[in-house]
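User: quick one, fold this
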Amino acid sequence: MFERRVVFGKKQVISGDLKEPVRPAPDADAAPPAFHKKQWDDPRIGSMLRDAGFAPDDTASIAPTADNRLAVFAAANQRLQQRTEAFNRDMTARHGHCDALPFLVIDQKIWDGPHGAFLYAQMNLVGYDEWNVIMLAGDPQTTEACGLAGHPGFVPSVTQVMTEHVIAWEARHSALLKTFGITASGGRQLPNEQYEMEKDTLRREIIDKAGWMKPRIIEDLLRKG
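Assistant:
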């Protein structure tokens, strides 16, 4: 308990040790745009891309997919650090001491595994966003002062449960793609409002499930002490 390292993504970004992502030199004649228009239009993804230094009409935004992913995660991680610092300041003002750390409901093992691309590329979700984060105590003093459960690092049972859910969600999305004749890589460019509605419903279900899990994780951690 009271684990301090918070990492995310196959190229690990560690809280408190964030470096600006390196962007390779553009080659506009050879490479396609790095980000799809839907990513720029999405209020969450588009904002994070701009925070990471990309622009929709900037040729410097041409970069390999892995670097795009790292840049988005880095920007989201920076926002998480800012939220954590603000949380600690507020709780310290109230209780005299607070050293809280973020805990990811859908944790890094899932994002780094075979189903992580589904969450990020298909559902436009990033695990550092607030929907997936619980603030937990980084030391015993914080638990005593603020009443927060201690940070466990990982909870294998939660990882297992959420992995099973993600597998089921991915299967449902694959069925949607098949139903509407759309490839996972976006090969069909024709708009399909019904598919988008179904996908948005699935995305909301994922977010809601993480929210449903939060109080249950906290209750279990407090019970175990």
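User: anything notable?
Assistant: Residues 4-34, 59-64, 186-190 have pLDDT under 50 and may be disordered.
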